[in-house]
Amino acid sequence: MTQPTQPYRLPQGGGVDRSRALEFSFDGVPYEGYAGDTLASALLANGVHLVGRSFKYHRPRGIVTAGNDEPNALVQLARGARTEPNTRATQQELYQGLIAASQNRWPSLSFDIGALNDLCSPLFPAGFYYKTFMWPPGPRWWLRYEHAIRRAAGLGRAPSEPDPDHYEHRYAHCDVLVIGGGPAGLAAACAAARCGARVMLCDENASFGGSLRGAAAAIDAAPAATWLAARIGELAANAETTLLFRTTAFGYYDQNLVGLVERVADHLPEPPPFVPRQRLWHVRAGSVVLASGALERGIAYAGNDLPGTMLASGAQAYVTRYGVKPGTRAVFFANNDSAYEAASSLHDAGVVIAAIADARPQSALSGKRPQRAHAAGMPIFPGSAIIRAHGRLRVAGVDLISLGGGAARRIDCDLVCLSGGWNPAVHLFSQSRGKLRYDDALATFVPDASPQAIVAAGAASGKLDLSAVLAEGYAAGLAAATRSGFHVAATSLASTADAIASGPLQALWSVPSRRGAKCFVDWQNDVTVADIALAAREGYRSIEHLKRYTTLGMGTDQGKTSNIVGLALLAAELGVTIPQVGTTTFRPPYVPVTLGAMAGHEAGPNIEPTRHSAMHDWHVEHGARMLNAGLWKRPHSYPRQGESEDDAANREAKNVRTNVGLVDVSTLGKIELQGRDVAEFLNRVYINRWDTLAVGRCRYGVMLRDDGMVFDDGTTSRLGPTHYVMTTTTLNAVNVMQHLEYLLQVDWPELDVFATSVTEQWAAAALSGPAARKVLAGLVSIDVSNTAFPFLAVGDCELVAGALRIPARLFRMSYSGELAYEIHVPVAHGRAMWEAVLAAGAAFGIMPYGTEAMSTLRIEKGHVVVGPEADGRTTADDLGMGKLVSPAKWCIGKPLSARPALTAPERWQLVGLTAVDGAIPRGAKLVADPGQAAPTPMLGHVSSWCWSPNLGVSIGLALLSSGRARHGETLWAVSPVADARVKVRVGPPCFIDPEGERLRV
Amino acid sequence: MLLIPCPWCGARNQVEFTYGGDATLKRPSPDANAEGWFEFVYLRDNPCGPHDELWLHSAGCRRWFKVRRDTRTHDILASARPDQPLTGGKP
CA-to-CA distance for B35 and A681, rounded, in angstroms? Predict the structure, then answer.
């Protein structure tokens, strides 16, 4: 069972609740922590430092930081389908029953076969796989190597089951967004809120406070905790202020759009009912205060990656925030004053400070913090450095040298705390296109100016002293509110803290070591000082190239602790200044963001909207499998008991030509056109003439694009002198509407035409077959005889079925080639109309038919479809509709369709194909002789194909070079993919009733 | 994601809009020669800096309008109805 003690837990201090013990396990070993712990602090409380193996050399690695910059402590959270790889133990809040496992090791964390890589490291220099796997030449071997490399690479395991959680997106607007809830952020948020601005304040931790959490500092002559509670209370009481915990700003986009990810339930075993796991915020801010703090950096020396090596700020945080001693005997290695504060915290907690090695000379140690450490009796070694660490799975000691020369002195310890200085977290500032400036005193880059409304405050702008942080925070909040149009409130108050005199930092990036020793710059990607030197020698002079060659700054931490060190070392290698090297580009996301949060609710069936016709439920109830047609669902066919879908479609298609069928055509685009100039407008957008169309008549039309290719086809009917209704293809409805709106609003605003999409307002069905009129005669209120309602007639009527009276528009038009009518009714009447027509047709053998039979019927008739035939490369003439182009008028696309290349006789033209024997294969190409040596000249391709139940043969439509001149020829339809070839006879595209007599009866 | 000022509806998120290409093109008269049509259909400038372009408020008022956008920075410098000139941030 759980080990009862937490040997490294302090008796008091820190923000954990010692009355609430939580059980968890790591690599199968049960442990205990407290509410308020992170996984990392709970592991350290139990003395566990070794938590993972490094990416490339499989070296043992421990917890380095207490924040989002953690490079090493990446674990697999095992929660069944909720398993998550690469979780930073420093960011994962502990919950009861948490199960975590280390990554990248086999068979166990303490004995890892992969560590052989470390012994063979001369084989794995920077860019090793670009060098090692280049032989033999040619891509085949690389592909084999790549397979093995991919398997060896990577850290955790991705979940293999569907994600059981849901995620949500929220859109928010505010006057001032404050990123970071530390002293600067709280001061800024309060200042802006007092001006009346709507403020959003986010912090990635479970509570606000940032560097003040657990700190001994005083503000306004009272403990910092008092100030913290007052500011949080003030903000929480303000109804216009939104406070977001566990929320990280990860991306800064155009016009002050900031992406936040809120980990709503990651601190719980699983989300409560109806609560999302994570929430992605799209915040459009009037202005932004970036108070994201600063990240400490390490110093490279041999063995600086042994477990027990931490950043000084991390070690301090475990003491002050979690009440955990990260070790018993510590050596500090620093080049600035901040490490002394950490040393004092550890000292006060009972950690023996065995040595503080400071790279600076004695004269630089006049600051208040070193003086205090000295007074407390901590042994300080000025002008010294750690040159080497000893130990295997945990640091056991270090060798100290004087930078002035002399022998090394070994000091035993189980904890090394590094402080190489501080890097402001400028990531979001840089993403806002803000320029960075190199600050010599801090030896790092700080925010300069941004074209967007963002201002950095506190440690994020390079201020490390609390008094300066608070002052800048207030000023930034006021500036942000002013920028968003608010007046500075007279009651604005400033808080003060005592300034602490500090000595200057002395830049130190690495300590020279013997050849072959590994001095790590980037812990996560195993990039050493030697790798950077090698890359520089090999000519990688740009920091961007260095990054890609050595993988410096890649991975889940994106080099938060290592980037500046790496580019400083490159600068030294190249003999240039650090600003001359510059930084790599900061890109979103600042921290890893789950794909689930990115997707939100737009996953699975909700990935896009679904459109149902009014008859959808009827189709489903009658056994139809619904197919996607754009966003619409359409019935494929209506199989009967024991019938295959193909048989059903053939039966349906045959029944249309022998009796009568009914098909749902509600998905066609429908556009109402009204105005005095509609006929002129139609003349311009269609290739044929429209000024001759009489009221009560409809006409088929083809639209071209400006480049002369076919854009869409459909019918337009004239319902009244100035009232027309256009239909478009299902898939092009939106595009046609947009095209017409563009022409009417931008190019020809002088035309008196109004276009309105009415696709959703009308349900429509096509009634086709020799018995169509008999079905309709008993159903509609008007005379539908051939003389009263001839082919291409249009009229309003009523459907009368018993007590039911449905207003309808009746069109006599035919897609199937049979006597046919389209019935359009207001959408609410769609299903009633459908059922009434089927009932009226029962005596005449009516059957509903789906899109498969509809397609068969149109192929038999040689009708083209936008997509297969009108594929964006075909002209009206290619499709056999050249005669439709009116010579009497201009239209869109007409000038360019007259280009020589678009009128050449060898163009691919529409033809019909009849299989001589067998079935035309899927996706076939047309060739004269399939036995020819490759590459066989391709004469064209089959665009549509089907079994024709009415002809009893496999037929197809094809685009064939000089097709119209080849009628009667025999060619081969071949599919190398299906390894099929079928002899086909070329003919005209229309197979049934080419004179069109059936549809005029 | 851009914040685009629709002249009718005000500033809205980019997701509500559809891009419509170069706003400086003028449709040739019906009797224009092949070169005129060729230029209109195929030739586009790719300016580095302010660019006048058309947008459609497709998930909004469904009106086309003009936007002057800096292609280097995504800054929206001006917007206007199709029949009115863009003012500010001269290209």
Answer: 25
pLDDT of residue A584: 87
Number of H helices, E strands in chain A: 25, 49
Q: Chain A residues with CB inside 8 Å of B34's CB?
A: 895-896, 899
* Chain B residue with minimum CA distance to A171: B13
Residues forming beta bridges with residue A285, ordered by sequence position:
A174
Rounded-to-10 torsion of CA A95, A96, A101, A102: 50
Residues in chain B closer than 8 A to A741 (CB atoms): 56, 62, 64
Q: Tell me the count of A-B CB pairs closer than 8 A.
A: 55
> Over the stretch A201-238, which tens digit does the pLDDT of each residue have?
999 999 999 999 988 889 999 999 999 999 999 999 99
ipTM above 0.90, yes or no: yes
Shortest distance, CA B46 to any CA of chain A (angstroms):
20
pLDDT number for residue A146: 67
Q: Strand A669-674 and strand A754-757: pairing?
A: antiparallel
Decide if B56 and A707 are in contact by the 8 Å CB cutoff. Answer: no
Q: Where are the beta strands (DSSP E) in A156-235?
A: 167-179, 199-202, 218-219, 222-223
CA distance A55 to A34: 31
CA–CA min distance A733, chain B (Å): 13
- In a 10 Å sphere around its CB, with 0-12 CB exposed, 13-18 middle and 19+ buried, how is residue A592 labelled? middle
Below-70 pLDDT ranges, chain B: 89-91
State whether B37 and A738 contact (CB < 8 Å). Answer: no
Q: How close does chain B come to A284, measured CA to CA in Å?
A: 9
Mutate to test the interface with B, among A174, A255, A758, A896 (most CBs of B within 10 A): A255
Interface test with B, best of A283, A745, A759 (most B CBs within 10 A): A745
Who among B32, B34, B64 is closest to A741 (CB)? B64
Reading phi first (left if > 0) and then psi (alpha if -120 to 50, else beta), residue A219 is in beta
SS3 letters across A804-817:
EEEEEEEECCCCCC
Rounded Cα distance, A7 and A2, in Å: 13
Q: Are A918 and A996 in contact (CB under 8 A)?
A: no
Write the single-letter amino acid at A57. Answer: Y
Task: Point out the residue among A282, A451, A745 whose CB comes nearest to the CB of B73.
Answer: A451
Low-confidence residues of chain A: pLDDT under 70 = 1-4, 128-139, 142-154, 490-493
pTM of the model: 0.90
Q: Give me the DSSP letters along A556-613.
A: TTTTTTTHHHHHHHHHHHHTS-HHHH--PPP-S-SS---HHHHHTT-SGGGGS--B--
pLDDT computed for residue A111 by the predictor: 82
> Cβ separation of B37 and A706 shorter than 8 Å?
yes
Q: CB of A665 within 8 A of CB of A656? A: no
Q: Is A736 helix (H, G, I), strand (E, B) or coil?
A: helix
Cβ–Cβ gap B63/A745 under 8 Å: yes
* DSSP assignments along A228-265, one per residue: HHHHHHHHHT-TTEEEESSEEEEEEEGGGEEEEEE-SS
DSSP string of A19-72, one letter each residue? EEEEEEEETTEEEEEEET-BHHHHHHHTT--EEEE-TTT--EEE---SSTT-SS
pLDDT in the model for residue A876: 97
Query: Is the bond into A136 cis (omega within 30 degrees of 0)?
Result: yes
Residues of A in contact with B18 (CB under 8 A): 738
State how far the Cα of A102 lies from the Cα of A27, in Å rounded to an integer: 6
CB contact under 8 A, B64 and A707: no
Candidate from A255, A890, A899 with C-beta closest to B3:
A255
Cβ contacts of B62 on chain A, cutoff 8 Å: 741
Q: Output the pLDDT for position A142.
A: 66
Q: Which chain A residue has the Cα nearest residue B4? A: A255
- The crossing angle, in degrees rounded to 10, of helices A368-375 and A338-348 is 30
Q: How much is the pLDDT for A2?
A: 45
